[in-house]
Amino acid sequence: MAAESAEGPGADSDGSSEELVLTPAQLIRSLEQAWLNEKFAPELLESKPEIIECVVEQLDHMEANLKRANRGDLKVSVHRMEIERIRYVLSSYLRCRLVKIEKFFPHILEKEKSRAEGEPSILSPEEFAFAKEYMANTETYLKNVALKHMPPNLQKVSLLKSVPKPNLDSFVFLRVLERQENILVEPETDEQREYTIDLEEGSQHLIRYRTIAPLVASGAVQLI
Q1: What is the pTM of this model?
Q2: Which of 59, 62, 151, 181 has the fewest CB atoms inside 10 Å of its own CB, making it the most exposed?
Q3: How far is residue 136's CA from residue 126's CA, in Å, rounded to a whole number?
Q4: 36 — phi, psi (to 5°)?
Q5: What gap in Å lies between CA 188 and CA 115, rounded to an integer?
Q6: CA distance 209 to 44
Q7: What's the whole-number average pLDDT of the chain?
């Protein structure tokens, strides 16, 4: 994934690259979509390192343009506010992911360990290193503060069993970006039966996250 500069795409492109080229506006929309999905999803979603890298490059480009602009130009203040807004969204997105890693680290690392070959990772390399270090520090802390003072048969603890899993059965609001047909909805009570629904483009719904998790991953719906 690559982003065009604010001045337009490069003129020396030979068209041989298969990278998806986004305009700055499309790139920021992709970041905002990833941010909202991460903010409202109960589980940690797939990492978006390409978007992060491109946004950082775009911010650097915008900063460089501001340094060349006339200080008295009103546009400078407007562009400065836009840069700060993008930085906020980016930092909030990354911070939200770190909070989830700290909250669900044993399950996230277990999911990463059992990931099939070719399946995309939900962690960036930096997040993976952070999660491993956080788990090691947690185990060391528990051992030094509590476990070593307990009887030998109680000195082992399973973090997978002790740390709660993400609640995939929680309900989320969503907006449909692409029409979907025959979405299977599981019953909420024993008296109810499974049924299917169609999601019309532009419609909004309150629905169990587990039902639409694949649609969030594919980009067919947007959490709101």
Answers
A1: 0.84
A2: 151
A3: 15
A4: -65, -40
A5: 30
A6: 13
A7: 88
